[in-house]
TrEMBL record:
Residues 128-197, 247-292 form the PAS domain. Residues 7-65, 71-127 form the CBS domain. Pfam families: AAA_lid_14, CBS, HTH_8, PAS, PAS_8, Sigma54_activat. GO terms for molecular function: ATP binding; sequence-specific DNA binding. InterPro entries: AAA+_ATPase, AAA_lid_NorR, CBS_dom, CBS_dom_sf, Homeodomain-like_sf, HTH_Fis, P-loop_NTPase, PAS. GO terms for biological process: regulation of DNA-templated transcription. This is Sigma-54-dependent Fis family transcriptional regulator. It comes from Effusibacillus dendaii. The lineage of its organism: Bacteria, Bacillati, Bacillota, Bacilli, Bacillales. SUPFAM superfamilies: CBS-domain pair, Homeodomain-like, P-loop containing nucleoside triphosphate hydrolases, PYP-like sensor domain (PAS domain). Residues 353-380 form a coiled coil.
Length: 715
């Protein structure tokens, strides 16, 4: 708003020699009361006003006289480029109604009259008014203003949103009735003439913070204004914050009273929360864990692995700071994204659990005892119940045995060593109900020269050193019962002939005796040899073979009925617990898996030996994979050590996945062992060489049972 914008450019230009008449004529033409007297180059000489000309005429001058005497030379001037406010001040202090406007070269360019000033200020006030209205309208806060009659004169869009009332309904109306929520306070600001402290007000759909102030003009209160800030969103956030804080406090309390150790990591793999129980287990201060990388500080928990793999896992029992712990890990998923992981470490209850397991075991033992007693007592229960199996071939064999036992026929039982042939023989005897004894002769164990007297006994003085009064042989001892001829394939040919005679005639003589004795003996023979081959080789009499092979039972090897492994393990562990006075609970799945892949050349007897060895060597309550002998641990299919297995042989292996997995696992174990040895047992270096994280290395060491001890042993 500069002078040049508002000055009157069409002004009256006069020369000193102009007459009064011509001056009046110009004043009339321009409708102005003032004229500028100029030199030829537009420089100011002075001014002439209508009043000065009137004064000349009143003093008797004629209209034709020059205007010179009426000229004022002391003229108030203003530069054209200054603001109007400055020009206004100049006019007010000089107490004149006009000022001559000059350019930079001091030439006259216009006249500034009071009317120009008024117009300028009216325009400026209108502009300001528009600005204030726009500002109020677009404020985020609601603004309500009243005049001193309490009528609402300002009501912006934010107020409309807050009070839910259209402007046309409230503008001009009394604030007390139209906006009662603020009516009292805004009128009090008006009446008391001072601002009011901020106050929360509750509207039907919002909460706002209101401030009130009086509006004054020239020391007079002409109204009041209320500014209201909508707090609804802030209140919501605050409430959410409070809820979050409450939840956090609840979580913290829950963690603290938790009996187990708990550690939580965020998506960066850093520890965000640990409870006192965990600190107690690790014997560490909270600030030494918080915000640290979990893999460095708590590698045993495998939290980073859980975060990476999304896997929820319960581990086997493992040791932390010398205490056995059971660790459960769970990833924390939010909106389908992994945002952390949580580990629960159970370390206190394990001792109680152990007691529970033992108690359970005792109860199971008792149950087994009563169950077997019940079976024995009930009519259906037979000695066959002691032959444990889940295999259909074995089940049908048990049925055949039951039927065969009812007859008097000779039974031949064949099968690999340790498959349970003797158990079947005993079952035959028990089921047959024969009153005599079950007598066993191991044909392979007795020297051939003693075999005859073992079988038939000898008479008094039959040979030097013979017992006085003679001695009965196994045939006589088994009279009325069952004679079990184990390893019959190993019986010398000479004795085979005598045996054949006894079987045919049911009579014999003691060695060195002439007296023929008659016996009632049930023969059950067993062998792990192929008798047909022995016949071909002339080592076994064909006629004897047909004589004993009346009923033939073939017991399948253990490797053909691997489904029997779990029940057999269970049965044998219980049996061995009683014998060895142990409290072993059972076989771990990992160990069982290894057993499944083994060929078991020694069958159930070998299994029993393996379990007995494990139970004797270890004080643990479970038979773990590392308790098994080396031949079972290293790949057990008779293959060379896995890591050296040529690729073509690996490919040629049957598509038995478990088998192949073992070979790969053994190769990995071998590699990890060698790298660890090379690094002198340093886990960090070894993990680096292997290109895996330290926690993964720890995990694999646990999986393959690589301990400090095994590292040194391997060296
Ligand atoms: N199905 C089974 N259930 C329970 N125990 C079994 C079973 N099979 C074998 N056994 C146990 O395995 C061991 C070996 O069994 P057994 O002596 O009967 O085998 P075998 O075939 O007669 O052996 P060998 O040919 O060497 O004389 C025994 O302790 C037996 O009790």
């Amino acid at each position: 708003m500069l002078v040049s914008d508002f000055m009157t450019r069409n002004f009256v230009r006069l020369q000193p020699e102009d007459s009064v008449r011509s001056a009046f004529a110009k004043f009339l033409q321009y409708r102005l009361d003032i004229g500028c007297v100029l030199h030829a180059d537009d420089l100011l000489d002075g001014i002439v006003t209508k009043y000065n000309l009137y004064r000349m005429l009143v003093n008797g001058c004629s209209l034709e006289e020059p205007i010179g005497p009426a000229m004022i030379r002391d003229v108030v001037t203003v530069p054209q480029h200054i603001p109007m406010q400055q020009a206004r001040d100049i006019l007010i202090t000089s107490q004149v109604a006009h000022a001559v406007v000059l350019d930079q070269r001091q030439k006259v360019v216009g006249i500034m009259a009071k009317a120009d000033l008024i117009q300028a200020f009216l325009m400026e006030s209108e502009r300001l008014n528009n600005q204030v209205t726009a500002l109020i309208e677009h404020l985020e806060d609601a603004v309500v203003a009243i005049d001193n009659q309490h009528k609402i004169i300002t009501y912006n869009s934010a107020a409309e949103r807050l009070f839910q009332q259209r402007p046309e309904h409230v503008l001009g109306g009394p604030v007390e009735t139209l906006l009662p929520q603020i009516g009292e306070d805004i009128t009090s600001a008006l009446q008391n003439r001072f601002p009011l402290d901020a106050k929360k007000i509750f509207l039907p759909t919002a909460i706002a913070l209101a401030t009130y102030a009086p509006v004054t003009f020239r020391q007079q209160v002409i109204g009041a204004i209320a500014v209201l800030k909508d707090l609804t969103a802030y209140e919501k956030v605050a409430k959410e914050l409070e809820t979050t804080k409450k939840l956090e406090r609840t979580l913290e309390s829950a963690l603290e009273i938790a009996y187990d150790g708990i550690a939580i990591i965020g998506e960066e793999g850093r520890i965000t929360m640990v409870n006192d129980a965990l600190l107690e287990l690790y014997q560490i201060k909270r600030h030494d864990l918080l915000d640290r990388v979990a893999e460095d500080k708590l590698p045993e928990l495998g939290l980073s692995e859980t975060l990476r793999t999304d896997q929820e896992r319960t581990s086997d029992i493992q040791e932390i700071k010398g205490r056995k712990c059971l660790i459960t890990r769970t990833p924390i998923i939010r909106d389908g994204k992994r945002v952390g992981a949580i580990a629960k470490v159970m370390f206190r209850q394990l001792d109680h659990l152990k007691d529970l397991f033992l108690r359970l075991e005792d109860l199971e033992n008792e149950l087994t005892y009563y169950r077997s007693e019940y079976i024995r007592a009930s009519t259906q229960g037979t000695a066959l119940d002691y032959i444990i199996t889940r295999n259909p071939v074995m089940e049908s064999l048990k049925k055949q045995t039951y039927l065969a036992a009812q007859s008097f026929s000779t039974i031949l039982i064949t099968g690999e060593s340790g498959t349970g042939k003797e158990l079947f023989a005993q079952a035959v005897h028990e089921i047959s109900g024969r009153p005599g004894k079950f007598v066993k002769v191991n044909c392979a164990a007795i020297p051939s020269e003693l075999l005859e007297s073992e079988f038939f006994g000898y008479a008094d003085g039959a040979f030097t050193g013979a017992k006085k009064g003679g001695k009965p042989g196994k045939f006589e001892l088994a009279d009325g019962g069952t004679l079990f001829l184990d390893e019959i394939g190993d019986m010398p040919l000479s004795l085979q002939a005598k045996l054949l005679r006894v079987l045919q005639e049911r009579s014999f003589e003691r060695v060195g005796d002439v007296h023929t004795r008659h016996v009632n003996v049930r023969i059950v023979a067993a062998t792990n040899k192929r008798l047909e081959e022995l016949i071909e080789q002339g080592k076994f009499r064909e006629d004897l073979y047909y004589r004993i092979n009346v009923i033939h039972l073939t017991v399948p090897p253990l490797c053909e009925r691997l489904e029997d492994l779990p029940v057999l393990c269970d049965h044998l562990v219980r049996k061995l617990n009683r014998i060895l006075d142990k409290e072993v609970i059972g076989v771990r799945p990992a160990a069982l898996e290894l057993m499944r892949n083994y060929r078991w050349p020694g069958n159930v007897r070998e299994l029993e030996n393996v379990l007995e060895r494990a139970m004797n060597l270890e004080s643990s309550n479970w038979i773990e994979a590392h308790h098994l002998p080396q031949n079972l641990l290293s790949v057990n299919t008779g293959n060379p050590p896995a890591s050296f297995l040529p690729l073509d042989r690996f490919r040629a292996l049957p598509a038995n996945a478990a088998n192949k997995r073992d070979i790969i696992a053994a190769a990995e174990k071998d590699l990890i062992l060698r790298v660890l040895q090379e690094c002198g047992g340093n886990r960090t270096h070894a993990a680096k060489h292997l290109g895996i994280s330290r926690s993964t290395l720890y995990q694999k060491m646990r999986m393959y049972h690589i301990t400090e001890k095994s590292l040194f042993q391997a060296e």
